[in-house]
């Protein structure tokens, strides 16, 4: 009787686990079915740029980069750093990463905007509290080159020696590529590949994504103006705050969603924050 009872409990536990897994998968499929946008199911290009806060801001870029790479790993997405500029003292000034996987762009879209960090600075000998900012930019990876028409005459292409890690080959040859789109003054660069051709291809992917985003913003602006609803968007205010001192809290200011376990967020547990924003955005 005791053995039969234990077997029943084990079977019930296994069934409950399977039901929980099926429920999670069903909820995720239902949510992903709601995601809209022409490129929502495609890959993403993620760029992080240090803002106000000096070396703390550059260190914050490193923290966010680690957070996003861990989030992508959890979801089984492939990532590749295609450009990176390191800080003189510590951290990263800017970095661009491709995130490849189904609905990568749809999820990463939730991260676009200014992120704010409040903590005791490890770079301040007086142990004072510092606030620093990072701009997060997310773009769709446009594989169809005919979708965004770029006149080669509108491009200024410069090559230079790559900096940082990468071996002697990268240091001795002009493998890094910087492309300026003259009409919009957009500048993109890539230097993490050993081949100038590969860096140019990656830079063009970033440029196509930026031009696509400009087109989308202009279309939304025109439609909103017709409805009398358009309000100029400014980059000044943060979308999310990461407070590590005097208390622990991550807050999304668009949805007012709060998470007390800051370490889990910085370790890449972002789905709850992302999905809360995306559900709210889908309903707006």
Give a description of the structure.
With 284 residues, the protein is α+β, with helices and mostly antiparallel strands. The protein has two domains: 34-145 and 235-283, Alpha-Beta Plaits (2-Layer Sandwich); 152-227, Double Stranded RNA Binding Domain, CATH 3.30.160.20. It has seven helices and eleven strands. The radius of gyration is 22 Å and the shape is globular.
Task: Label the structural class.
Answer: alpha+beta
What is the number of helices? 7
From the alpha-carbon coordinates, what is the Rg to the nearest angstrom? Answer: 22 Å
Question: What percentage of residues falls in helices of 4 or more residues?
Answer: 40-55%
Any idea how many domains?
A: 2
Oligomer: single chain
* Secondary structure tally: strands: 11
Which CATH C-level class of the largest domain is it? Alpha Beta
Summed over residues and divided by their number, the pLDDT gives a mean of: 84
Low-confidence stretches: 165-170, 230-235
The percent range for strand residues is: 25-35%
- Give the overall shape: globular
The third-level CATH topology of the largest domain is Alpha-Beta Plaits
* Corresponding CATH architecture of the largest domain: 2-Layer Sandwich
User: Looking across the biggest beta sheet, what order are the strands in?
Assistant: 2-3-1-5-4-9-10-11
- Topology as a string of helices (H) and strands (E): HEHEEHEEEHEEHEEEHH
Largest sheet: 8 strands, mixed
């Amino acid at each position: 009787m005791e053995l039969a009872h234990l077997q029943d409990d084990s079977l019930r536990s296994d069934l409950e686990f399977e039901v929980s897994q099926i429920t999670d998968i069903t909820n995720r499929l239902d949510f992903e079915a709601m995601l809209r946008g022409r490129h929502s199911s495609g890959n993403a290009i993620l760029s992080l740029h240090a803002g106000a806060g000096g070396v703390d801001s550059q260190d914050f870029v490193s923290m966010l980069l680690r957070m996003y790479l861990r989030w992508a790993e959890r979801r089984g997405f492939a990532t590749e750093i295609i450009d990176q500029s390191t800080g003189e003292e510590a951290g990263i000034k800017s970095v661009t990463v491709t995130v490849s996987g189904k609905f990568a762009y749809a999820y990463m879209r939730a991260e676009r905007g200014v992120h704010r960090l409040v903590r005791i600075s490890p770079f301040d000998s007086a142990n004072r509290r510092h606030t620093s900012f990072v701009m997060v930019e997310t773009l769709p990876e446009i594989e169809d080159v005919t979708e965004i028409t770029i006149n080669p005459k509108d491009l200024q292409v410069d090559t230079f020696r790559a900096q940082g890690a990468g071996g002697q080959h990268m240091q001795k040859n002009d493998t890094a590529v910087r492309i300026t789109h003259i009409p919009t003054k957009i500048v993109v660069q890539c230097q993490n590949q050993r081949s100038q051709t590969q860096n140019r291809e990656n830079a063009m992917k970033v440029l196509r994504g930026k031009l696509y985003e400009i087109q989308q913003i202009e279309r939304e602006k025109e439609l909103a103006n017709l409805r009398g609803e358009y309000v100029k968007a400014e980059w000044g205010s943060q979308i999310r705050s990461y407070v590590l001192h005097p208390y622990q809290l991550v807050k999304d200011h668009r949805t007012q969603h709060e998470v007390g376990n800051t370490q889990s967020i910085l370790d890449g547990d972002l789905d709850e924050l992302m999905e809360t924003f995306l559900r709210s955005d889908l309903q707006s």
